[in-house]
Specification:
Layout lengths: L2 H20 L1 E7 L6 E3 L5 E7 L7 E9 L2 H5 L6 E2 L3 E2 L6 E2 L10 E10 L2 E2 L6 E5 L12 E2 L18 E9 L3 E11 L1 E6 L2 E2 L15 E8 L7 E10 L22 E10 L4 E5 L5 E3 L4 E5 L3 E5 L21 E2 L6 E4 L5 E7 L3 E6 L2 E19 L5 E7 L1 E2 L5 E2 L9 E5 L5 E4 L6 E9 L10 E8 L5 E5 L2 H16 L24 H5 L6 H14 L21 H4 L1 H13 L3 H21 E2 L2 E2 L14 H4 L11 H21 L6 H19 E2 L4 E2 L4 H9 L5 H18 L8 H4 L2 H7 L3 H9 L6 H6 L30 H10 L2 E2 L8 E4 L9 E8 L2 E9 L3 E8 L4 E7 L6 E3 L2 E2 L7 E6 L2 E6 L2 E8 L1
Parallel strand pairs: 2-10, 16-24, 22-31, 41-45
Antiparallel strand pairs: 1-3, 3-7, 4-5, 4-6, 4-8, 8-9, 8-10, 11-18, 11-23, 12-17, 12-20, 13-16, 13-18, 14-15, 14-17, 18-19, 21-22, 25-34, 26-27, 27-32, 27-33, 27-34, 28-31, 28-33, 29-30, 35-42, 36-37, 38-39, 40-41, 42-43, 43-44, 44-50, 45-49, 46-47, 46-50, 48-49
Helix pairs in contact: 5-7, 5-8, 7-8, 8-10, 10-11, 12-13, 12-15, 15-16, 15-18
Bound molecules: alpha-L-rhamnopyranose.
Protein name: alpha-L-rhamnosidase
Organism: Mangrovibacterium diazotrophicum
Enzyme class: hydrolase
C-alpha cells in the first residue's frame, strides 16, 4: 500500500467511525413509558430519543426489532417484529405492527436510526410486557372478610383494622419467570418471605371501583426461591371502605369491606406453569397491629399486636381465620400504567418545642403530604398521639379548624421492646407541624423523619431566575403539585375532602407538565373523567366520582377536553382524544340540549370560584364558599371547546363534525358579543378582570375592539386594583398569557412579583411554603382554607416556561417536534435558567441580560427544530458562539419584527449574543 492508499484507507476508517460516533439512540419508551409492565393495547406505540453533539440532526429512517426474549433480541432474532428499514422522520409514537401479542407476553426491543449525519448503532435493549387481556386470565378468587370485627366501628368516623392475609407454598422446580398480579382494595402492601415487594406505597391508584380497578404487576423471578415461600398481603381501606360511613343523604360513595385478588404465575424452566392464587387455602386475620386506617382520620397502630414472622415460612397461623369468598367488585380490571406512590424524599424536622407540659410541637419546615416516621423507646402500652396541621395558631398551638372533621391523627402504642421504629401504611397527612403527646420522655428532632409520599413521577423541568420571589413561588408550586398527586390529582391533601376536582386542573395540568412527567397520571385521569360520565352525557365535577356532584357546568367538566388537549400538546399523543371523542361530543350535546339559549350557555356552577375580596378587611373572617354562576364564563368556555372540538374532530377522523362545530362557534361568538359587550365600558359583562380576560383569551373579541378591551384589562389592573389581579380560579387560568400575548408582559411580571394582597408573593410573605386555596387564605373563615391547593396557580407555570424561559411547543408540530423559543425581556428580570425534558430530549434555555447585551444558551433536541426569537434590531447585531451569523446559510431567517430576529435552527446547542 502506498502512502496515498494508506491515507485514503485511514480517511475511510475515520469517516466511518465518525458516522457512527455522531449519532446514538436511547431513551426508549413504549406508550411513552419506560419499560412498562401491563400494556393492554395490541399495537403499543414506541419511541426513542436521538443524541448527538452535532447540529441539525434529522432522522431519515429507523428499524425496530422486537423479540420474545432478551437472548433472541441480542442475537437479532426478532421473532415478534422486524420492521425493516423504514424511511421516516418519526421517532415517537410508532405503532408496533408485528406478530399478534397475547396476555402476559414479554417483548424486548431495540432500535437503530439513520440520520442526515450518519447512522446509529443499535440502542440498548428495552422492554415491555402485556397485561392480562381477558377476564378469563384471572384464575384467582376474591377473598376478604365482609364484616366489621368487634374492635371495628362503622359509625361516621369509620374505624376498621387492616386485614392481613398469608399463604405458604412450595415451588418444586427451577424457576424461569414469575409474575405476580395483585388488586388489594382499597390499598395493599405485598411482602414475600418477610420482605416488602417493591417500593410502592398506598397502591393501587384509586378509581371508581364500580367502573374500573387497577391491578399492579410485580416480577418476582429473582425473589422467589425453589422450595418453601410465604406471601403476605395487608389490605387497608383507601377509598374502597369509604372514610365516612352512614353519611345520610350525602354524596360519598362507599364500595364495601377491603378485599384481595392475587395471582402468581410461575413458569418453570421445563415449560410447565404453576399458579398461586388467592382462595380459601389462604389464612387471614383482622386482629393485627394496624387497628384503624382512615384516610381522613389517620392510622392507629398497637405494636403489642405485632405478629413477628407472619409473612415468612413456618409462622403458626392456627388461630388465623379462613377468608371468605367475597363478591367481586363491578369495575373492569385494568393494568395500572401510571406510577404508584412512593416515599420520594425524607425531611429532617427543623425544631421541636414543648408547647405545654407533655405537649410538643414539631416543625418540619415545609408543608407537604406524607407521614412521620418515628423512633421511640418506651414501655409497653405507652400511647403516643400525633396530630397533623399546616399552620400554628398565634398562641403556638396546632391549628386544625381548616381540617374540618378530618382528625388527621396518628396513634402509636409502644410494644416495649427497646427502640421501636414506626410509620403508617395506609394513610397520609397534609402537614408541616405535628403535635405530639404521650411521648415517653422528651422527644428530639432526631426521633423523627418526615416522609414525602406522592406519585413516583420524574421531575422533568428545572427553572430559576434572578428574582428570589419568583424562585420561591416556583418552589411553592413544586411542593403544592407534588403534595396533590395521589394516583389522581386531588384538590388538597389535608382536610376531609381530598377530591379530584376537575376545575382545579383545567389549565393547571398543562403548567404542571413542565415540572413533572405527569402524562401517565393524566392519561389515567382523562379515563377517570370518562368513567364518571352518565348515559345521558353528564360529567361529574369530581373524578373518580367519589362525591356525586353532577352540577353541569362548562369550566369544571370541560376539563375532560382540556386534559386530552394538554396530553396532545405536550406529548403529541392523540390517543386520549380519539378514545374519548364520542364522550366529549356527547357531553357537549347534553349541555346544549339542556342549557343553550340563543348561543348562550346559560348554566354555570361556580363562577370565578374563590375570587379575591377587594381588600383583606372585606374578606376577613368570611367564608369563601360562595358561588356566583356566570353565563359569560360558561359561554366563553363553551366557545373554546367548540374550537377544540374542530381540532379533535380532525385528529380523530371525525371530519364530518368540523363544519357543525365551526358554524356553532360562529353563532356563539356573535351571541357573546351581543349579550355581553358594553360599549360604554369598553368591556364585557360587569367589566370584571376575569370577564374581559376570557373574552380576549378565547378569541371572542372582534379585531377592531381588541385593543380597547385589552386597554380595559390593563386599566383594571393598574387603576382599580392598584397593580394587582382580581381573578379567581377562572380568570387566573388565562391572565399571564393574555397579558403577555397582548404586549403587556410587564404587567404580568408585576402580578408575578407582587408581595401585597392579592398575589402569590403575599402567600410567601405570610409564610406559605405551598400555594393556598384562597388569595386571603390567612384571614378568611377557616372552614374552607387549605394551605396546599394548586388551583390558584392558574397559568403561572406555563408563563414561567413558555414566556420567561422561552420553551414552548409549536402548535403546528406538537409534542415539541417544533419548538418556539421566545423569552420575554422584562425590566427587572436579568436572567432565567430553565430546562424541560421533551419527548425528543432535553430543551434548555438559559439567558442573561444587561442594558446592552443579551446572552442566551439553548439546546434543541435532535430530530426537532426551533424557531428562535432573538432580541435584536437586525441580523448584524447577533453572534453565535462569538461569530457573526449574517450570511450563514445554517441560520434560516424567518422574519425580523418588533425588535426581534426570528431564526429557524436545527438541533444542537447554540450560544447567542445580541446587542440590545
Ligand atoms: C372546593 C375545593 C375545590 C374546588 C371546589 C369547587 O371544595 O376548593 O378545589 O374545585 O370546591
Amino acid at each position: 500500500m502506498n502512502d496515498k492508499q494508506t491515507l485514503t484507507l485511514l480517511l475511510i476508517l475515520f469517516l466511518s467511525a465518525t458516522t457512527f460516533g455522531q449519532v446514538s439512540v436511547g431513551g426508549l419508551t413504549c406508550e411513552l413509558l419506560k419499560d412498562p409492565a401491563g400494556i393492554e393495547i395490541l399495537q403499543p406505540r414506541l419511541g426513542w430519543k436521538i443524541e448527538s453533539d452535532q447540529r441539525d440532526i434529522h432522522q431519515t429512517a429507523f428499524q425496530i426489532l422486537v423479540a420474545s426474549t432478551a437472548e433472541k433480541l441480542a442475537a437479532d432474532d426478532a421473532d415478534c417484529w422486524n420492521s425493516g428499514k423504514i424511511d421516516s422522520d418519526q421517532s415517537q409514537l410508532i405503532s408496533y405492527s408485528g406478530k399478534e401479542l397475547q396476555s402476559a407476553d414479554n417483548c424486548f426491543w431495540k432500535v437503530k436510526v439513520w440520520t442526515n449525519k450518519g447512522e446509529s448503532e443499535w440502542s440498548e435493549p428495552a422492554q415491555w410486557s402485556m397485561g392480562l387481556l381477558y377476564f378469563k386470565d384471572w384464575r384467582a378468587r376474591w377473598i376478604g372478610f365482609d364484616k366489621a370485627f368487634p374492635w371495628d366501628d362503622d359509625s361516621f368516623h369509620a374505624r376498621l383494622s387492616a386485614r392481613y392475609f398469608r399463604k405458604e407454598f412450595n415451588l418444586k422446580k427451577a424457576i424461569q419467570e414469575a409474575k405476580a398480579y395483585i388488586i388489594g382494595l382499597g390499598l395493599y402492601e405485598l411482602s414475600l418471605n418477610g420482605e416488602k415487594v417493591g417500593e410502592s406505597v398506598l397502591a393501587p391508584s384509586p378509581t371508581d371501583y364500580h367502573e374500573n380497578i387497577k391491578y399492579n404487576i410485580y416480577d418476582l423471578t429473582d425473589e422467589l426461591k425453589k422450595g418453601e415461600n410465604a406471601l403476605g398481603v395487608v389490605v387497608g381501606n383507601g377509598r374502597y371502605y369509604a372514610t365516612r360511613q352512614h353519611y345520610k343523604g350525602y354524596k360519598i360513595k362507599n364500595f364495601g369491606f377491603p378485599k384481595l385478588l392475587f395471582q402468581l404465575v410461575v413458569k418453570y424452566t421445563d415449560g410447565t406453569t404453576e399458579y398461586v392464587i388467592s382462595n380459601n387455602s389462604w389464612k387471614g386475620t383482622a386482629d393485627g397491629p394496624i387497628r384503624s386506617n382512615n384516610e381522613y382520620d389517620g392510622e392507629e397502630y398497637d405494636a403489642r399486636k405485632e405478629m413477628p414472622g407472619w409473612d415468612t415460612v413456618g409462622f403458626d397461623d392456627s388461630n388465623w381465620l379462613e377468608p371468605e369468598y367475597v363478591e367481586q367488585p363491578d369495575g373492569k380490571y385494568e393494568a395500572q400504567l401510571n406510577t404508584n406512590m412512593k416515599v420520594l424524599k425524607e425531611i429532617k424536622p427543623v425544631s421541636v418545642r414543648e408547647q405545654s407540659p407533655g405537649k410538643y410541637i414539631l416543625d418540619l419546615g415545609q408543608n407537604f403530604a406524607g407521614w412521620l416516621h418515628l423512633n421511640v423507646n418506651g414501655n409497653a402500652g405507652d400511647t403516643i398521639t400525633m396530630r397533623f396541621g399546616e399552620i400554628l395558631q398565634d398562641d403556638g398551638e396546632l391549628f386544625t379548624t381548616n381540617l374540618r372533621d378530618a382528625q388527621a391523627t396518628a396513634q402509636y402504642i409502644v410494644r416495649g421492646a427497646g427502640v421501636e421504629s414506626w410509620e403508617p401504611k395506609f394513610v397520609y397527612y397534609g402537614f408541616r407541624y405535628v403535635e405530639i403527646t404521650g411521648w415517653p420522655g422528651k422527644p428530639t428532632v432526631d426521633d423523627f423523619i418526615g416522609k414525602v409520599v406522592s406519585d413516583d413521577m420524574a421531575v422533568h423541568g428545572t427553572f430559576s431566575t434572578s428574582n428570589a420571589m419568583i424562585n420561591q413561588i416556583y418552589h411553592n408550586a413544586y411542593w403544592g403539585i407534588l403534595s396533590n398527586y395521589k394516583g389522581m390529582p386531588v384538590d388538597c391533601p389535608q382536610r376531609n375532602e381530598r377530591q379530584p376536582w376537575l376545575g382545579d386542573r383545567t389549565v393547571g395540568c398543562y403548567g404542571e407538565n413542565f415540572i413533572f412527567d405527569n402524562a401517565a397520571l393524566y392519561r389515567k385521569w382523562v379515563d377517570d373523567i370518562a368513567y364518571s360520565q352518565k348515559p345521558d352525557g353528564t360529567v361529574s365535577d369530581v373524578a373518580p366520582a367519589y362525591w356525586r356532584y353532577y352540577s353541569d357546568n362548562m369550566s369544571w367538566c370541560g376539563t375532560f377536553l382540556m386534559v386530552a388537549d394538554m396530553l396532545y400538546q405536550h406529548t403529541g399523543d392523540t390517543e386520549p382524544i380519539i378514545k374519548h371523542y364520542a364522550g366529549m361530543k356527547k357531553w357537549l350535546s347534553y349541555m346544549e340540549a339542556r342549557y343553550l339559549e340563543d348561543g348562550i350557555m346559560t348554566k354555570d356552577s361556580y363562577g370565578d370560584w374563590c375570587e379575591p375580596p377587594a381588600t383583606i378587611e372585606e374578606g376577613r373572617g368570611k367564608s369563601a364558599d360562595q358561588k356566583y354562576p356566570s353565563a359569560l364564563i360558561s359561554t366563553a368556555y363553551y366557545y373554546h371547546y367548540l374550537e377544540l372540538m374542530q381540532r379533535f374532530a380532525k385528529l380523530s377522523g371525525n371530519e364530518q363534525d368540523i363544519a357543525g362545530y365551526q358554524e356553532q362557534a360562529g353563532k356563539v361568538k356573535d351571541a357573546f358579543q351581543i349579550t355581553f359587550y358594553k360599549a360604554e365600558q369598553k368591556g364585557y359583562g360587569d367589566n370584571k378582570l376575569t370577564e374581559n380576560i376570557l373574552a380576549v383569551a378565547m378569541g371572542l373579541v372582534p379585531d377592531l375592539k381588541k385593543e380597547e378591551v385589552v386597554g380595559t384589562i390593563v386599566k383594571t389592573i393598574e387603576e382599580t386594583n392598584n397593580g394587582h389581579l382580581s381573578t379567581g380560579v377562572i380568570g387566573t387560568q388565562w391572565i399571564m398569557r393574555t397579558l403577555t400575548e397582548n404586549g403587556h408582559a410587564d404587567w404580568a411580571w408585576k402580578l408575578a412579583t407582587n408581595t401585597t394582597y392579592p398575589s402569590w408573593g403575599y402567600m410567601v410573605e405570610n409564610g406559605a411554603t405551598t400555594i393556598w386555596e384562597l388569595w386571603n387564605g390567612n384571614t378568611a373563615a377557616p372552614k374552607m382554607n387549605s394551605y396546599n391547593h394548586v388551583m390558584m396557580l392558574g397559568d403561572l407555570l406555563i408563563w414561567f416556561y413558555e414566556d420567561l424561559a422561552g420553551i414552548k411547543s409549536s402548535d403546528q408540530a406538537v409534542g415539541y417536534k417544533q419548538i418556539e423559543m421566545k423569552p420575554q425581556l422584562i425590566e427587572g428580570l436579568d436572567s432565567v435558567n430553565a430546562s424541560y425534558k421533551s419527548p425528543y430530549g432535553t430543551i434548555a434555555s438559559s439567558w442573561t441580560k444587561t442594558k446592552k447585551k443579551f446572552e442566551w444558551s439553548i439546546s434543541v433536541p435532535a430530530n426537532t427544530s426551533a424557531l428562535v426569537s432573538i432580541p435584536a434590531s437586525s441580523l448584524n447585531d447577533i453572534k453565535e458562539s462569538g461569530k457573526a451569523i449574517a450570511g450563514n446559510a445554517a441560520f434560516n431567517v424567518v422574519k425580523t419584527e418588533d425588535g426581534r430576529v426570528v431564526l429557524e435552527v436545527g438541533s444542537g446547542s447554540y450560544h447567542w449574543t445580541s446587542k440590545l
